[in-house]
Amino acid sequence: MIELALIESEARKMYHQIEDVLNYVKLPPLKLQDYSLHDILKKVIESVQTTDDVEIHLPKNNPQIICDIDKLEIVFVNLITNAIEAINGVGSININAKTTPSHIIIEVEDSGPGITEEDLGKVFEPLFTTKQSGTGLGLSSCKNIIERHRGEISVKNNPTTFTIKLPRGTDA
């Protein structure tokens, strides 16, 4: 049984590495539709491998987002997977959302130790990774996807928080 779990784990890693490469190089047109943030996040959380020791808290509010759901799911899978790895499978991930007249701002915060100051400015660069099995394309793909939605993504420490700023309405 342990061997099967190991094979599944390794296959999942390979799948994500291949997905990272493909998501980085392919740029089909966005298919924009209106979605609830909670619906997107719940679908992503179901697909991400986690344990009972990880608490993921959804935002209290539930803004509607005009986006390409397949692309935005890629962003959230990357951010949540990275957060789970950062907390080493034990801790919490808080997702917050707020709206302004022109933007929806989504924050993904984890209880991990943070990103080194040296690495903080490099995390969105293609091929940069601190992981042995990473491709270095996950966060650069996230940046690409958010920018294609006319948005911005940034990161800060204490606690580690990735912030996504997307335009509201149909101007995405």
Characterise this structure:
This protein has 172 residues and is α+β, with helices and mostly antiparallel strands. Helix content is 40%, strand content 24%. The strands form two sheets. A five-stranded mixed β-sheet has the order 2-4-5-7-6. A two-stranded antiparallel ribbon has the order 1-3. Helix 1 crosses helix 5, helix 2 crosses helix 3 and helix 3 packs antiparallel against helix 5. The chain is globular, with a radius of gyration of 16 Å.
List the helices and strands and how they pair.
Layout: H1 2-25, E1 33-36, H2 37-47, E2 54-57, E3 64-67, H3 69-86, E4 91-99, E5 103-110, H4 117-120, H5 138-148, E6 152-156, E7 161-167
Helix pairs in contact: 1-5, 2-3, 3-5
